[in-house]
Write a structure and sequence with these properties.
The complex is a heterodimer. Chain A is mostly helical. A 3-stranded antiparallel sheet of chain A has the order 1-2-3. A 3-stranded antiparallel sheet of chain B has the order 1-2-3. Chain B contains 9 helices and 3 strands. The chains are: A mainly alpha, B mainly alpha. Chain B: InterPro entries: AH/BAR_dom_sf, PX_dom, PX_dom_sf, SNX5/SNX6/SNX32, Vps5_C. Chain B: One of its GO terms (molecular function) is dynactin binding.
Chain lengths: ~675, ~400
């Protein structure tokens, strides 16, 4: 438990029996959500400093809890009323204000989740957040209620949400309230169950949320939906869900981020993957629900501080967006910032996060210097296209689309400046170091692959990567040669015209100048063709190289998960040995501690194993999705490319056929 | 494809210099040639009904140097000063394909086997095409001589055709090479000198300005067309490499993804069949129809310019002889000798002018016909290739959208 305050990945919150935790979490989540909601509401008003944890809300929390236990409708109102008062909650949000707001919007589609992703998603979230929450306060406080919960019948566990909620709130506020909070849960075990049934019916839910809605702004209402959803879903108390806690763990150390954790974790639940697949299949068949376009690249500022800004327009039919059509202005680093956020959140879970185009110091410097030559225009256009495709890929991903950051990116007028993407910033430097260490560990970790599928796929991906790189180089050289040809054709056209003017045979002279004209047109054709080569072919391949990198990244994350599991196993082994030694040495005082440790590590091993399995499943699904999309995309692009070629051939025929009578007229 | 390509080359080249009269009395071709290191041995085959030859049909081995010798002797023959001597064939140049072959050998390690084989095949085809083209330019040179009413009767030409031993023409030694260079210098300087001589004939005056202008233009056009053709070839090469890479990619792509495989395969096939081949063809056709045409006429115009120079020289000589005669008359010394000289010069100049006029008019007609023929053929081929491309593309698109 002590480890919970650490930021490093492996810490594991509770040594207690996992089942207890699970059931407890189910409840805890609910409370968490409430907290979250209040937080969001108040957050917008008064951002204060963190770590400011008075005990007063204690009573409030329990009030709240009681209200809740009475029945959801009333509790909603109560909640919202309560929400205005506790500034303590606000504290938690502090600098994460924007994040929180985003979080609150993220669960919005929770009603969709019912159908699409299935309950599991929510479950996972629930537990994850609870874990996080319970982890946040110091160990003693949280462990106590868990023990209390332990051994309770199922109904009680369902009642848990309310109790846990109070517990949770108190935890957030301070350690003192925990025991008290835990109490009520048990005293009113039946009530919550009723709530559940009600909520399971799910009819009352939206309404209650609406009442809140009216008070808060639109985004927040979703939070309620979300809350209820989680409650309902948690009925089938999942076991698999623990995995998330480990990821949420680091953030748990600061309670503010623990709040955002659930939303984050919501995205990549393993169980939701079947649905995901179905959905994406549907998505593949259908038109995209969200169409993103990146337009009007524009240089802002002067000199080396200049940057490119793009107009990002979104067209959507999805109800999760406020409007059907909206446009925001984003600069390049914003796109990178979005990727950073997404990959940080979803990468470790095995999701393939579409990568944006790389920063190009050379290309950008040219633009900055302001040389209005064709190469910099070419560069800007290439990048614009790449950004558009990148964004479209993000919104096409059913899980990424749900991410609050994505929505914020698309919808919000002003984004906080993405700092970490600056080329030479300290953050960038840190990132570089991280990448280096990653590379080292990648080399050192020798994984004996148990799953032939992954091995095969990895090889496939790697060889495809190689081939695509080669292909890309070839297409680039094709483009260069095509441009050359275009230039040379233009030159020839000029000299043919000259020759025509020098020719003393009238008909021949005419034919030659006609030839010059034809060559001129053909030059244009070659130029267009070079553009097609670049934009429909070379860029397609460049995209795939980037994507293959992302695929490899997801494989790496899987291996990391595996490594964690192995490490935990090794640790467990060590602990067992210690125990045996102690047993032999007959030191009963230390023996208990050792036993506790073993229990703890056993739990971790199971946890990490499940983590690994979950990541594996995600990666597998993601790779399949990627391949399916690639196939489709490739086909589309190639067809497009061929059509463009066809067009230019048709033009060519036209030109030469028009020339033919001229040539024949020479006499 | 290789074979067809080469046949194609052969046929096209024959058309570069059209207007060879269809006189069947002296038919020359080069059915075979052997490449030995830097030397190319041509088998010159002659079929004739002329009595000046001992046999009606015979073959002799000749080298490029022999052709040059023949050309030089023709140029140096005083009697032919009024004729456009057909331009000598350019020296066989296998450097570019050889160099490419060398490069390919060096790059073998970085290529897949299939790619290498393909590139090698391509290069072999290119090499062969260059070889055939070389043969053809030599053939064309002989054919133009044989179709010329005066030049076909030339003794040296007949020896060249008939003498069944090695002509063992001495290669020019350094001194001679320098001499040739010096001669060229003198000629250029002389050209400048005699440029001041007042032209007496409007036809030649016009012809001179025209040819000078035309020559510079056609020279430029040739250079540009060569560049254009080269970049077209580069593109064809790119297509080969692309196609090979796509091929290996589709071969390695896991069998589970039939569609990708199919796509890639199709695309690769398209590239291979359509673009590489057609683009290559476009390049080689452009090369043959346009570049070769321009190149040939560039040389031909040079020959015509030489004729003009010789005539101008004769004119200058005549004027000088006039002056000499005046001087002689003034001094009253050697008058008859000077008169004789002046008469000879005038006569020479007149013959030159007369035959030059005929030759230049002929040349003009020949040029127009050749341009017409080649341009029409080129346009037709371009249309044909584009149509081929289109059909293939349509097929591909249909297949793609059908799946």
């Amino acid at each position: 438990m002590a480890s919970s305050s650490e930021r490093s990945p492996p810490p594991f919150p509770d040594t207690e029996d996992q089942d207890v935790l699970d059931s407890e979490e189910v409840g805890g989540r609910d409370s968490d959500e409430d907290d979250g909601e209040e937080l969001f509401m108040s957050a917008s008003n008064t951002p204060l400093t963190k770590q400011d944890t008075p005990t007063s809300p204690d009573s409030q929390a329990s009030d709240l809890m009681e209200d809740l236990s009475v029945g959801p409708p009333s509790s909603q109102t109560e909640k919202s009323a309560a929400s205005s008062s506790p500034e303590e909650f606000v504290d938690l949000t502090n600098n994460l204000e924007s994040r929180v707001a985003a979080e609150s919007s993220s669960p919005e589609p929770s009603d969709e989740f019912f159908d699409i992703l299935g309950s599991e998603t929510q479950k996972v979230e629930v537990e994850a957040s609870v874990k996080a929450d319970s982890g946040a306060p110091q160990s003693k406080a949280s462990s106590r209620p868990e023990k209390g919960l332990f051994g309770e019948p199922d109904e009680d566990l369902f009642g848990g949400p309310l109790g846990a909620m109070s517990k949770k709130t108190t935890e957030n506020e301070g350690k003192s309230g925990t025991a008290k909070a835990a109490g009520p849960t048990f005293s009113k075990p039946t009530e919550p169950a009723d709530i559940f049934t009600e909520e399971a019916a799910a009819t009352t839910v939206p309404r209650t949320s609406n009442t809140v809605n009216s008070k808060a702004n639109g985004v927040h209402s979703e939070e309620d939906l979300f809350t209820e959803a989680t409650v309902e879903l948690s009925l089938d108390s999942p076991r698999s869900s623990r995995k998330n806690e480990e990821t949420s763990k680091p953030s748990a150390s600061s309670s503010s981020s623990s709040l955002s954790a659930p939303a984050r974790q919501a995205k990549p639940p393993p169980a939701a993957l079947e649905e995901l697949e179905d959905e994406e299949e549907a998505e593949l068949e259908d038109k995209f629900d969200v169409l993103v376009s990146v337009k009007d690249p524009e240089k802002v500022g002067d000199g080396m501080n200049a940057y490119m800004a793009y107009k990002v327009s979104t067209e959507t039919t999805l109800p999760m967006f406020r409007n059907k059509l909206f446009t925001v202005r984003r600069r390049f680093s914003d796109f990178l910032g979005l990727y950073e956020k997404l990959s940080e959140k979803h990468g470790p879970n095995g999701l393939i996060v579409p990568p944006p185009p790389e920063k190009s110091i050379l290309g950008m410097t040219k633009v900055k210097v302001g040389k209005e030559d064709s190469s910099s225009a070419d560069f800007v256009e290439r990048r614009r296209g790449a950004l558009e495709r990148y964004l479209q890929r993000v919104v096409n991903h059913p899980l990424l689309l749900q991410d609050p950051d994505v929505r914020e990116f698309l919808e919000k007028d002003e984004l906080p400046r993405a700092v970490s993407t600056q080329t030479l910033s300290g953050a960038g430097f840190l990132k570089m170091i991280n990448k280096a260490t990653d590379a080292v560990s990648k080399m050192t970790i020798k994984m004996n692959e148990s799953d032939a599928w992954f091995e095969e796929k990895l090889q496939e991906v790697e060889s495809a990567d190689q081939h695509f790189r080669k292909l890309h180089a070839l297409v680039e050289s094709l483009v260069v040669h095509r441009k050359e040809l275009s230039l040379n054709t233009a030159n020839f056209a000029k000299s043919a015209a000259m020759l025509g003017s020098a020719e003393d045979n009238t008909a021949l002279s005419r034919a030659l100048s006609q030839l010059a004209e034809v060559e001129d047109k053909i030059e244009q054709l070659h130029q267009d063709q070079a553009a097609y080569d670049t934009f429909s072919f070379a860029e397609l391949i460049a995209d795939y190289i980037r994507l293959l990198g992302a695929v490899r990244g997801s494989f790496d994350h899987r291996i990391k998960a595996w490594q964690r599991w192995q490490d935990a196993q090794a640790m467990l082994q060590k602990k067992r040995e210690t125990e045996a030694k102690l047993l032999w040495a007959n030191k009963p005082d230390k023996l208990q501690q050792a036993k506790d440790e073993i229990v703890e590590w056993e739990a971790r091993v199971t946890q990490f194993e499940r983590d690994f399995e979950r990541v594996s499943a995600t990666v597998r699904k993601e790779v399949l999705r990627f391949e399916k999309q690639r196939t489709k995309n490739f086909k589309r692009q190639i067809t497009k490319y061929l059509e463009l070629l066809l067009q230019s051939q048709q033009q060519l025929i036209k030109y030469w056929e028009a020339f033919l009578p001229e040539a024949k007229a020479i006499a | 494809f290789q074979f067809i390509g080469i046949e194609h080359v052969v046929k096209t080249l024959r058309s570069v210099s059209v207007d060879l009269n269809n006189d069947a009395s002296l038919l020359i071709d080069i059915p075979d040639a052997l490449c030995e290191r830097d030397k190319v041995k041509f088998t010159v085959h002659t079929k004739t009904t002329l009595s000046s030859f001992q046999k009606p049909e015979f073959s002799v081995p000749r080298q490029h140097e022999d052709f040059i010798w023949l050309h030089d002797t023709l140029v140096e023959t005083e009697d032919y000063a009024g004729l456009i001597i057909p331009p000598a064939p350019p020296k066989p140049d296998f450097e570019s394909p050889r160099e490419k072959m060398h490069k390919l050998g060096e790059g073998e390690a970085t290529m897949t086997k299939e790619e290498y084989t393909k590139m090698k095949q391509e290069l072999e085809a290119e090499y062969l095409a260059v070889f055939k083209k070389t043969v053809q330019v030599h053939e064309v040179f002989l054919q133009r001589l044989s179709s010329h009413p005066v030049l076909s009767k030339d003794r040296n030409f007949q020896i060249f055709l008939e003498y069944d031993q090695d002509l063992s023409v001495r290669r020019k030694n350094a001194k001679e090479m320098f001499g040739g260079f010096f001669k060229n210098m003198v000629k250029s300087a002389d050209e400048v000198l005699i440029a001041g001589v007042k032209e007496v004939d409007d036809f030649f005056e016009q012809e001179k300005t025209f040819l000078l202008d035309y020559f510079s233009k056609i020279k430029e056009a040739t250079a540009k067309a060569e560049k254009m053709t080269r970049s077209h070839k580069n593109i064809a090469d790119d297509y080969i490499r692309l196609s090979a890479t796509l091929n290996s990619l589709s071969a390695e792509e896991s069998t589970n993804y039939y569609i990708i495989k199919f796509c890639l395969k199709l695309f690769q096939n398209f590239l291979r069949v359509c673009l590489k081949k057609v683009e290559g063809r476009v390049a080689s056709d452009e090369e043959l129809k346009l570049t070769e045409l321009l190149r040939y006429y560039m040389r031909d115009i040079q020959a015509a310019k030489d004729l003009l120079y010789r005539r101008a020289r004769a004119l200058a000589d005549y004027e000088n002889s006039n002056k000499a005669l005046d001087k002689a008359r003034l001094k009253g010394k050697d008058v008859s000798q000077a008169e004789e000289h002046q008469k000879r010069c005038l006569q020479k100049f007149d013959t030159l002018s007369e035959s030059g006029k005929k030759e230049l008019t002929n040349f003009k007609a020949r040029r127009v016909v050749a341009f017409r023929k080649n341009l029409v053929e080129m346009a037709e081929l371009e249309v044909k290739h584009a149509k081929n491309n289109m059909t293939l593309l349509q097929g591909c698109i249909e297949l793609l959208s059908g799946n």
